Amino acid sequence: MIIRELTHEELLMAVELNHQCWNDDFAGIIPYDSMDVAEEISFVSNWLNDKECDDIRRIYGAFEGDSFLGYVGGSLAEKEDAKHGVELNYLFIKKEYRKKALGLKLISTILVEFKEYNVDQLIIYNWHDSESNKFYRYLGGEILKQVIQTPKGKEVLVDVFIWDIDILMKLINHKLYTRSFEKGGFAFNESLPGGICMTSSYTEEDANIVCKGLLQHNVRKTYGLLKKPDVNINLFLKENGKPIGAILCDTFNLSMYIDVMWIDEAYRGKGFGTALIFQAEKIAKDNGCIFSHTCTFSYQSPEFYKACDYKVFAKLDDYPNGIVQYFLKKKL
């Protein structure tokens, strides 16, 4: 199963599912055929493609192979509902794919993205007497207010739910990681021959044992070279004590690996990035490193590294939407 942005051509599938759910799930709550499919597809298309607004709008669909399972849509919430919030505008799932944790995964898809836009609350408008209302209460939604909407002239009570996004994301993750893989969650347990169990359940101590075992293997197989020079090269740029950029590097096998490289947008193009990378390289070389290497994506900074004399030695171009990952190196 994959969750991805819907294409313009796929919006019709989403609107048709919306129409079907309104007629089936909300029967008796709102008048039949309250939605006109042609009008709604025009509205959604314009809503998504309105370049004049300062909103952020997304619609994602869930697919199993060629089968469309359901979709979710979100946008920045109205300020009167949440000062820094995201509104879940759509969440519809085909009946045969319900109760398989898909709703949790679709909501999470919106929250994970919008959280990077500094939103901290989720808003959902939902018919008070609908079955989906129970789902949102199950997720701990609080009633911010109630309003009356009038589809086809019928007055219908609507609950406006609100959540703290951090709390909701923790709850969703807990439900997904404790729900079995067979029921759409991430929990997995299987008995293997010889009394061995394959499981997704582990403790911090378990993780430490595995990492320590791998590290010991690697150090012994490289006769200690893995731990040379074993210097963390972390350089920060600060203005009045506030970080505006940094380069974070590991060193191993007499090489330097650039793990993180970031400059605040307001300070780019002024030579700060070049200064950081050259100083990190100098420290690495002075401590015995013979080359530096890193990887970066096409939407990040491949041209910057090339300008710093890094050479592309491999690339991975199997990502969607034309995204390419570049692997680069430079002799020191």
What is the 3D shape?
Answer: globular
User: Number of DSSP helices?
Assistant: 8
Give the name of the CATH superfamily of the largest domain: Gcn5-related N-acetyltransferase (GNAT)
- Give the H and E element order: EHHEEEHEHEEHEEHEEEHEHEE
Largest sheet: 7 strands, mixed
Structural class: alpha+beta
Low-confidence stretches: none
CATH architecture of the largest domain: 3-Layer(aba) Sandwich
Number of strands: 15
As a percent range, the share of helical residues equals 25-40%
Query: How widely separated are the two ends?
Result: 45 Å
Mean pLDDT: 95
CATH class label of the largest domain: Alpha Beta
GO molecular function: acyltransferase activity, transferring groups other than amino-acyl groups
InterPro entries: Acyl_CoA_acyltransferase (IPR016181), GNAT_dom (IPR000182), N-term/lysine_N-AcTrnsfr (IPR051556)
Organism: Clostridium tagluense
Keywords: Acyltransferase, Transferase
How does this structure look, described?
- The chain is an alpha+beta fold.
- The protein has two domains: 2-188, 3-Layer(aba) Sandwich (Aminopeptidase); 232-331, 3-Layer(aba) Sandwich (Aminopeptidase), CATH 3.40.630.30.
- 30% of the residues lie in helices and 33% in strands.
- The protein has eight helices and 15 strands.
- It has helices at 11-24, 37-49, 102-114, 131-138, 165-178, 204-221, 272-286, 302-307, and strands spanning 2-5, 57-64, 67-76, 85-93, 121-127, 142-149, 156-164, 189-192, 196-199, 233-239, 242-252, 255-263, 291-297, 311-316, 325-331.
- The strands form three sheets. The protein has a seven-stranded mixed sheet with strand order 1-2-3-4-5-7-6, sandwiched between helices. Strands 10-11-12-13-15-14 form a six-stranded mixed sheet.
- Strand 3 and strand 4 form a beta hairpin.
- The radius of gyration is 26 Å and the shape is globular.
- It starts with a strand and ends with a strand.
- The model has no long low-confidence stretch (mean pLDDT 95).
- It comes from Clostridium tagluense.
- One of its GO terms (molecular function) is acyltransferase activity, transferring groups other than amino-acyl groups.
- Keywords: Acyltransferase, Transferase.
- InterPro entries: Acyl_CoA_acyltransferase, GNAT_dom, N-term/lysine_N-AcTrnsfr.
- Residues 1-163, 197-332 form the N-acetyltransferase domain.
